[in-house]
Amino acid sequence: MTMARPLFYAALLIFIVVAPFIFPDFRTQLATLWLMIIVALTWDMTGGQMGYNSLGNIFFYGTGMYVCAVVGIGIAHPVAEYTNASGGGIYKFTNTQYFLGAFLGILAAGIFCALCALIIGYFTFSLRGPYFAIGTLGVAIAAGELVSNWDFVGGGQGIALPVYPNDLDQGKLFFYFLFAITGVVLFVFLNWMYKTRFGAAINAIRDDEEKAEAMGIHTLRYKLTTWAISAFFVGVVGGISAYQLIHFEPLETAYQTINLGIFMVVCVLLGGKGTLWGPVIGAIMFHVFKEVTWNYFLGWQWVALGALIVVTVVYFQDGLMGWLKHTKPEWFGIRVESTSDEGAK
């Protein structure tokens, strides 16, 4: 068992590196899979580990897209002229401007979204239960409407970013590895954080916030920090998505509350809330399910998705990981004494 886990992680890391070369026709789908894994893991930080179910994490994704685009464009051209609906000419980007703008934009997106989480969380964390979920959803919807009417960032027409300057297949590899590296860093970070005193504190908030406060835990500080970390990574992948998609709109792409905003929650419910591997497994299951239904059951894909959610909520309320812990506890190092053992005693 001591050697099995390092070997498993080594094999998994090798597969992550070689996957886009083994399946070259599915590089975009593999990149999207990493996006789903990342947003599921970040949602579970607050929803699963801390017990605050947010419906507004899509706010950070959309805001990350716009912050990244503004910074990336601003490196080379005036943003207001570039996004002008009437058109202001042909704007070219050198390779240096493209990659420098993308790097600085992605970094700025993460930092800006983390700061937004601190500000928004200071007010919304006074709400609990469904009120917190509805409050965060309201923030995301309001942001989408505000941006769609803001001419500086293109309004309802959105923003078109420069195309990857080199070969198209090389661009698919580039974005795949950006998502993959972000996902691996997030997973390793959470694997460490959940084992620390910080992880124990946010679990205490989930179990009983009043008792946690009575024990001397500064609950608001932990809640704000957790949401800020989550928002940072969501903002980062939002920035990466902006450059990957090239063109995006405020309501249909950036602040897509009824698509990605719901998908990230479904991924966690499928895999199991409050676990490290649950969101990862749930994201993989959901992405495969979505790709199959969207390709082979077009027109019925939303019906299939609704049926999946109903089955999960009714029969697998703890997700796949919770179901496995109940049926196969020995897989998780949990020893259950049999009836014969108890009789022998």
What can you tell me about this protein's structure?
The protein is mainly alpha-helical and 345 residues long. The protein has 2 domains: 26-257, no CATH class; 258-345, no CATH class. It contains 16 helices and 2 strands. Strands 1-2 form a two-stranded antiparallel sheet. Helix 3 (58-74) runs antiparallel to helix 5 (95-124). The model has no long low-confidence stretch (mean pLDDT 89).
Please provide a brief summary of the model.
By secondary structure, this protein is mainly α. The protein has two domains: 26-257, no CATH class; 258-345, no CATH class.
Q: Give the helix/strand class.
A: mainly alpha
State mean pLDDT (0 to 100 scale): 89
Poorly predicted residue ranges: none
Secondary-structure element string: HHHHHHEHHHHEHHHHHH
What percent strand?
under 5%
Topology diagram in text:
Elements: H1 4-22, H2 27-47, H3 58-74, H4 79-82, H5 95-124, H6 130-148, E1 159-160, H7 168-193, H8 197-207, H9 209-214, H10 219-245, E2 247-248, H11 250-254, H12 260-271, H13 277-296, H14 301-315, H15 319-327, H16 339-344
Antiparallel strand pairs: 1-2
Helix pairs in contact: 2-7, 2-10, 2-12, 2-13, 3-5, 3-6, 3-10, 5-10, 7-10, 8-10, 12-13, 12-15
What are its keywords?
345 residues; 2 domains; two-stranded antiparallel ribbon; 72% helix; globular
